Amino acid sequence: MVSLKSFVTSGKSTSDALAELAAAVDDSGITPDLVCVFYDCDHEDQPIFDFIRQRFPNAAFLGGTSCSGVMNEVGLGGMGSIGLLLIEDPDGDYGSAAVRLDADVADCAERALHAALEDADCAGELPELIWIYQTPGQEEAVIEGLRRVVGDRCPIIGGSSADNTVAGKWRQIGPDGPMNDGLVVGVVFSSGGIGFAFQGGYEPSGHNGVVTRVGYDVGDESGVITKARGRQIITIDGEPAATVYNRWIGGVLSEKLAEGGNILTDTTMYPLGIDAGKIEDVTHYVLIHPDQILEDGALSTFASIEEGTQLYCMRGDKTRLVERAGKVAAAAAAALPGGITNLAGGLIVYCAGCMLAVGDQMPKVSKAVSASFNDMPFVGCFTFGEQGFVLDRNAHGNLMISAIAFGR
Amino acid sequence: MEGSEELRETLVAMRREIDLLRVEATHANLLLNALDSVLCVDGDADPFAGVFSALLPVFEYSHAIVLIENDHAQGTLECAAASRDSLVGSIWKAGRTFSKVLAGRIITTLSSADSEEWPDGIDVGLSQSQPALYLPLRVRNRRGLLMLLRDCDSSGFDRTHVALARKFSLLASHAFAATRANQTEAESHRLKQLTEQLKASQAELTFRANHDQLTGLPNRSHIQELVDAILMRKQPGQQLALAFIDLDNFKQVNDFYGHAAGDALLKRVADRVRAEIRKTDLIGRISGDEFVFILDPFREQAEVSALIARIRDRLQQPFEIDGARIRVSASIGVAFFPTHGSDYETLRRNADTAMYQAKTTSKGSIGFFNQTLGKEAAEKISLEHSLRTALRNRDFRYALQAKVDIRDQRIVGFEALARWVDAQGRVHPPGKFLALASELGLLDGITNIVLDALIDDLPRLDACFGTDVSYSINISAAQAAKIAFMEQFVQRIAGTGRAGSFTLELTEEAFVAAGPFQSRIFPLLREVGVGVSIDDFGTGYSSLSILADITADELKVDRSLITSIHQRPRSQSILRAIESLSAALSMYVVAEGIETVEERDFLLNATSITCGQGYLFHKPQFVDELIRSQTPTMPMPASGERFSSAHPSSRSPQSSALSF
Description:
heterodimer; B: TIM Barrel; 3 domains; 8-stranded mixed β-barrel; 24 strands; about 45% helix
């Protein structure tokens, strides 16, 4: 029998918040096998780590910073909040491991996965779900490393840790303590089954073009570039990428074209999309969020793109982003063995860019998720990148929403 | 609905459900086969041989091994059966993985995993690194497990296999129990019940996976399977007809009466068609309001025509739904096997093409596929490819056609007209590509290219014609309703600081459709100062009452009213009425399509219209050519009279929209 409990406390110093959490946890009567913790980046890491280790010494454990706090079934925690999700499953197996990401990111991810499986006492077994939380920037390489081990035979779901102002103050936390350049991997062998969903809330606007040049990522420590893939789009259809993109979105960036700079907020409603595959001839998209205009009119993004990729300009609106969270949660719950009646609770990864765009309507997002989860416990974090399983493939995207539903 | 979020969501949900149903149906079928294998074994014969062969197609394993707890040596298991006979009797250690499986867990391993339980000295071509799937079993009241192995170089088992293994494990354990020589009545009864339930559930699952839940008709994938099976059996000389039915204006039924009524209508449509076709014919629903039916056999095509006409007529009879009397029609296209295709997909596509042609000609009509249609379809695909490439390469330019003061031929404005210039330098008129570009959703991109180029050219045009000349760009009714596109478009015009020099030309249709244009875009145009022109007035809805609701700046009278106006008293009366109403509403009137001196003279002498456009004055020209033609050495192409550029003080005669 699987049971979940969530706790959110907000607006206090780290020690006060932890004292409040301690009281709530002690009254909960739950002995978790997996603990997920997400918190505003203004909190101190070490006391949070100590709290988790002392309270739950035998539980697998992972999490990290979340943009402007967290949410749960009670509502939006807001700035300064800390959220805990406790999962008790005596008949299941859970494990976690952490690694700092050095030059060979894929190898690091592979090692972390094997360590997490060892931690779960399930070495060599295919988990039901791999849950990851990581530093932003190298998500594709992380997924590549994990896929070396499991392929697309099990879902890889998670998020990229976030701070409040894109100032690089994001951290990850796992069984070895806090990090700012790492990856935490959790493996789940649930006795109640899981359901999951990964979707965006945007539609193509009609503009599209082909990426004709990218700023390459160096493949490994050999420095050899093996393919034209990177997080800087230099040209689209042979023209400076920022110029083309600005034209697609109606000149919103005109004032920044010359000087460059952060465009994260300006572009939240107009991300780029790449073709993730078709169902019945209708294209599905994985989203990519341009975050800066660089020198020479290049665009920096939160996900890698290959040369030759067809890029689509997408568009969204607040209402859709609010409703989408509830729909993703509902889809995850529906995918559970036994459907929503078997739901014990869940976990939501909601893009921080969407959160900033939705603004003061964010309480509606937590309400929508709560309604879809039948008021069962959940915790939601706000991230700078989302990973999930779409059209039979594990993928990294931006401005997406991932949901995991745990069955009883 | 294509491309919308709702469609995408519905498709994902449908695919998920159908995948689930198909998997469930497959599982149920497999389990029945495996159970039959177990139950049909006589006496003490090995029940596993049949089980192994039943499981092979689904799990695609290379080796299967059954291990049972060893009573004689604690902590070990003995091989009771295996696809390799030499393994039978081998002893295996009950390590960590086996202990979990014996406790009831299904486990699949990663391909690189090594098994600590593997016995020493096993040498039958097996490796510890082979991907494995472990299932718990209870055999003759003892715990055991079934191990399925795949070759090292194949992909491992996935979560679907785990789900299937869970079901099989439970049922197989019951089956093994029932085959014991001393099986009890209770066990036997329980197994019988279980098998019956499984059979019923399998039949239901198969039906649900293959049929549309609303109408009960075969769904898209099932109808394809059925037709392909029929085609496989066809002998040379035998025919078959595939008809594609598409309801006309079904969306309006949903919009007006609601989705419940729409669903009820689809059910009734299915019932009516079913009632008309013969027992040997087939019908399926392949998407929202699209059905296919298969007529097989028939002797001559006239027989097919008669049956389809009967169905078409039957569907035109009104439907009584929830007290409402709903009238619809259906457009039908037909393709014949083998003339128009030898497989389902080709026949369906060709019947669809014939249906589309029929619907375009007249809704509620019937079309038969022919080679001309096939050629047109191929050309359309080729044109579609060329258009997409052209848009990617930005191979679109614009030409300008002047609007002039017909009293002195001074230029008062220009209408920008899109042209596609292909890689060979051929200029394609809008009639060649506009409709398809609109259908493919490429029109916004083309319109943006034209606007970009026009904005870039403004300094040169200003130098030649002055800054008071206005420029018009055409916007389709569909574009006008797209908030995001229109907001961006207007912002870009506003960004030039010359919004007052631009006019958007929209047809009446854009104004008639209540909605986003009226509520959001029109006020925005007013706010930034972009002019609004009603284009082609007299060809669309032509409701004078529309004029009362719109505060447009300009009204362009369509060429159909202007052509030979001097000889057509009725057109003259209509023109006077339009002119009078426009004057009352302070809208500037432009006469389009003036091609003869007689037409111009009539307008000059019998009306107060002062602005005109047409080949009599100017044929569209690319900007370079237009500017060159304004130099003293270059003659004007159309009328032979050179323009003089007017700098009117008022903004009155602003020109058109990208009149494609």
